[in-house]
Amino acid sequence: MNAIEELKEYFAEIMRLHYIQVTLGWDQEVNMQNYKSLEGRSKQVSLIEKLIHKRVTSEKVGKLIKEAEELADLNEIESAMLREITREYNLATKLPEKLVTEIAETSILAAKDWREARAKSDFSIFQNILEKSVELQKEKARRLKTHPDMYSTLIDLYEPGATYNWIANVFNPIKPKLIDFVKKLNYSSNKPDDSILRKYYDPDKQFELSFEIIKKLNYDLGYGRQDRSTHPFTSSLASMDTRITTRTSENYPNECIFGTIHECGHALYEMGIKKELHDTILCNGTSMGIHESQSRMWENFVGRSKEFWMYWYPTFQKYFPENLKNYPMQEFYRAVNTVQPSFIRVNADEVTYGLHIILRFELEKELIDGKIQVKELPQLWNSKFEDLLGIIPPNDTQGVLQDIHWSMGSIGYFPTYFLGNLYGAQIYQNVLKKIPQLPEDYRKGEFSNLLNYLRENVHQHGSVYRASDLIKRITGEELNPNYFMDYLEKKYYPIYNL
Ligand code: ZN
Fold it and tell me: What's the pLDDT at 347?
């Protein structure tokens, strides 16, 4: 066995430990919502974290990496494996065990405080632990120092290779265009009416229907399942076990339906990784941005298209005849594509969504740079919200407390969501060029041509190619946000009769 083969085998065990940790996390989110204490679980999670850390940072790994670097005939996958293992090793050896353990424990306790603060709409309950969490993230960034500025170092954890400046250069030109576009749509005298979506829809029926949809989208229930949780998410508990969660809101079926399609898109990515990469360090989406490109493609470009609804609407009507029996499909399609500034990111339409992200991106940068303090967040959140979206959240539950990310210590994660929209638009534009009949497929309830294309070009590769290489391989150019604006204009002008 040569050094790279040994590393591959060694990291297969680390991956399995990682899957155990994910399993504990999944169980916590799905089954332990009402527990009074998470102390036991918190200690288990940090034990696994410690075991992983110990293994990744062992001398053996350092020695094997050096040996593997000398090997002349590494193939593409082996080179990528070495790249990712080296990255993992560097990240882990720069962090002392004490810091890693403290971060893991703090995030569990912070999740508890966040939940309480959110329920009571009282930021002060969350403030202390968030301050600690931010300091720990800064400490982490100082030690990792992948980039000269701390925020870029944190971003790099989720979007390898990306920096604050690179993202700001992508977001800044699109920000005023989005603000203008939202205003323009709202000047229309023929806006969609989404009151049909504010009626009562039986939550159990919503859940049942969401199940029908994911089956049709080729989510394989032999390798996963769907449950409910406070915040929808996708988890791989093993290379062949990718689970999703959803939530239902009785007066707003969008949360369940589009949330489910979104998580299904994430799951299809992980489920499509080729066998050769299973249990290896490459058995992951290559970046959070590319991951999000897959979920948002299914959620928005497919799930909010007219053809999708031409197929699904009769089924919807059967599930909810009291609301929809006499309601025309075309109006329902317009309703699910209503663009309206609103407070909650996960429920935001695809046009205003980017503005929710830009707000977080800008706040995080200043927070990490120490230009603003944690205690100022609620007020800064609200004033920025007004600048970008023209409205002010009525309370912190609908403002600064809505997302779980900061409680988990995930700072630098948010920008990847919007990058996902942008990557998605560029990839989707390319798919449509190659398979122009796709919308016709959806009209017939046929989704495998799109899935096969994505499997072939994106999914199977796991993290063999970095995001910037992958987008060039698929589309022949670097990330170009114009595709997203083009997509919005083509879609929304007809919906708004502009
Ligand atoms: Zn997502």
Answer: 84
- Dist. CA 186–CA 457, nearest whole Å: 38
What distance in angstroms lies between residue 266's CA and the mean position of ligand 1's atoms?
A: 7
Alpha-carbon span 454 to 460, nearest angstrom: 8
Determine contact, residues 339/188, Cβ cutoff 8 Å.
no
CA-CA distance, 378 to 105, in Å (whole number)? 25
Q: What is the pLDDT of residues 365-391, one digit of tens each?
A: 999 999 999 999 999 999 999 999 999
Under the phi-then-psi rule, with left for phi > 0, alpha for psi from -120 to 50, and beta for the rest, what region is 132?
Answer: alpha
Question: 263, 270, 350, 364: which one is catalytic?
Answer: 263
| pTM of the entire predicted model | 0.93
pLDDT in tens, 32-46: 988 998 999 989 998
| 478 is an active site residue | no
Plot region of 328 (φ>0 → left; ψ -120 to 50 → alpha; else → beta): beta
Beta-strand runs (E) in 46-133: none
CA of 490 to the centre of ligand 1 (A): 24
Structure tokens at 354: 């980017």
User: According to the model, what pLDDT value does residue 354 have?
Assistant: 97
CATH number of 164-495: 1.10.1370.30
The DSSP letter of residue 237 is: E
Q: φ and ψ at 296, to 5 degrees?
A: -75, -30
Every domain of the chain and the residues it spans:
3-124, 164-495
Q: What is the mean pLDDT of residues 352-361?
A: 98
How far, in Å, from the CA of 188 to the mean position of ligand 1? 31
Distance of CA 458 to the CA centre of its chain: 16
> Tokens representing 241?
């076990």
Q: How confident is the model at residue 258 (pLDDT cuts 50, 70, 90)?
A: very high
Q: Is the pLDDT of residue 337 over 90?
A: yes
Read off the pLDDT band of 97 (50, 70, 90).
confident
State the distance from the centre of ligand 1 to the C-alpha of 417, rounded, in angstroms.
Answer: 7
List the one residue out of 84, 210, 183 whose CA is nearest residue 388: 183
Concatenated DSSP letters for 112-147? HHHHHHHHHT-HHHHHHHHHHHHHHHHHHHHHH-SS
Q: What is the pLDDT at residue 104?
A: 85
DSSP tag of 297 = I
